[in-house]
UniProtKB/TrEMBL annotation:
Signal peptide positions on this chain: 1-19
Keywords: Signal
Record protein name field: Lipoprotein
Keyword Signal assigned: yes
Length: 308
């Protein structure tokens, strides 16, 4: 009997390990843009060890494939994945850009808002939050394909590997223009969104969209973001990014090191005011040190350490 139990445990261990290996391989394939091979590996992992996490990975991957048949698969696995999930994360996941105009997406939104509010209390301005979540998806949704090609652009010495990138870039521009027009209407209607009214992530979405708009709009709405931030109603990173971007556009040194440029095909921060004090300034607004931020987000080795 003991031998049988030991054998069963060993088999379970190898099944779990095999599933984890498939998941890791699938994640890597997805990061490289190889969606169908990634989907096959996720499917193998799901067959070995079914889970809501794997259902979510399958749903987000099939959504990136943009076909009507795959959308059916997306909603099938997304509904499984979210049965016991009361978070709002799926509602601003850019992988789901291809499905947000499908009538079934509204049902997903309704269910997630209902579960979230049952656990966390009502969202004061749910209609505004819902619009902002969709705008975040539209703003970021083409970046999966775009960023894969941008990495190849760097490796290829300044050339894209396929002309397919150009309609992707055009769609990015179109989505940002539509977002800007819609957000300005909502800002006129509701005012600047605060974290306590629409949730922190949704409020950050407004800053994200304005930061991707024109300099004139950034200059106009930054005081509203700054006020919200000082009142504890906005994310420090969104505040820092818009502050730095305005300074760079005005030919000044940035304060927090959030704005990047390319110098001879090498990405680096724009000049930073008193760089030895940058970590102190970042800490004062609630951000971590610059060096790990640059390494994690941009794979930049920041040489300057704050003076003691």
């Amino acid at each position: 009997m003991k031998k049988l139990i030991a054998l069963s445990l060993t088999l379970l261990f190898f099944q779990a390990a095999f599933g984890q290996n498939n998941t890791s391989t699938a994640d890597s394939l997805k990061n490289e843009g190889l969606l169908m091979p990634a989907l096959m590996k996720y499917g193998e992992a799901m067959a070995q060890h079914p889970s809501t996490e794997m259902s979510y990975k399958i749903a987000s991957t099939t959504a990136l494939l943009w076909t009507s048949q795959m959308r059916d698969t997306t909603f099938y696995f997304l509904n499984i994945a979210l049965q016991n999930d009361s978070s709002l994360e799926p509602l601003y996941n850019p992988d789901f850009l291809s499905v947000i105009d499908d009538p079934r997406w509204e049902k997903v939104e309704d269910a997630q808002f209902k579960k979230y509010e049952a656990k966390n209390g009502p969202i004061k301005n749910e209609p505004f939050a819902r619009e902002l979540f969709r705008m975040i998806i539209k703003d970021q949704g083409m970046m999966y394909a775009g960023n894969i090609e941008r990495r190849k652009y760097m490796k290829n010495g300044g050339y894209f590997s396929t002309p397919a990138i150009f309609p992707v870039l055009a769609m990015e521009e179109k989505n940002k223009k539509e977002n800007e027009e819609q957000l300005l209407k909502l800002l006129d209607q509701y005012g600047w969104p605060t974290a306590s009214a629409v949730t922190e992530v949704a409020a950050a979405g407004a800053a994200l969209i304005i930061n991707h708009a024109s300099h004139e709009l950034r200059a106009k709405y930054f005081p509203m973001l700054e006020k919200a931030f000082k009142n504890g109603e906005a994310q420090p990173l969104r505040y820092a990014k818009m502050c730095d971007r305005l300074l760079v556009e005005e030919g000044k040194e940035q304060l927090y090191g959030t704005q990047m440029k390319f110098d001879n095909m090498v990405r680096k921060p724009y000049p930073i005011k008193e760089p030895e004090k940058v970590d102190k300034r970042r800490a004062e607004i609630g951000l971590g040190p610059l060096k790990p931020y640059l390494k994690e987000r941009f794979n930049i080795d920041w040489p300057t350490a704050e003076k003691k």
